[in-house]
Amino acid sequence: MKRAVFPGSFDPITNGHLDIIMRGLTLFDEIILAIGVNADKKYMFSLEQRKSFLEQTFKNQTKIKVTTYQGLTVDFCKKMKADFILRGLRNPADFEFEKAIAHTNRKLEKIETVFLLTSSGKSYISSSIVRDVIRNNGNYTSLVPDAVRI
Ligand code: ADP
After folding, report:
1. Which of 7, 115, 140, 149 has the fewest Cβ atoms surrounding its Cβ within 10 A?
2. Taking the CB of residue 66, how many other CB atoms lie within 10 A of it?
3. How confident is the chain (150 residues) per 10-residue block, as mean pLDDT?
4. Taking the domains of the chain in order of start, what are their residue ranges?
């Protein structure tokens, strides 16, 4: 079984994540959406809210599982018997950042990171921009799946 972990903060999930995840379904038998728990990071949405947004968004997708994890992503992948990490790339900054992480992960464990290029029209969407729009009372609804409502 080809199983991939898609790790992220999902604070909140955006249509950019959604696009990568749905396209990833054509490559993998199962995708585990894994919310990394980092006690030092400040989030807009609680862990429960972020998890619930993901669960609602993918409630009809039997190939998608939602969970949280602590510690190294590669250790979590091993635990889940996942040989792949799925990530999205939007721009050169993403590439440089992701490259270093993917190289490190591959040094630590025999895990391949599979990158999907953002769909044209979605590359500008990021969780941090969505949070800014929300903070300033803007209309964020076209940037996120329907489940993300405040
Ligand atoms: P992290 O905190 O690990 O950056 P995110 O939830 O922000 O977690 O992002 C998780 C993954 O989703 C990353 O690989 C990121 O590049 C990808 N991603 C986020 N937004 C988009 C987008 N608009 N198009 C493609 N990939 C995206």
Report:
1. 149
2. 21
3. 98 98 98 95 97 98 98 98 98 96 96 96 96 98 95
4. 3-144
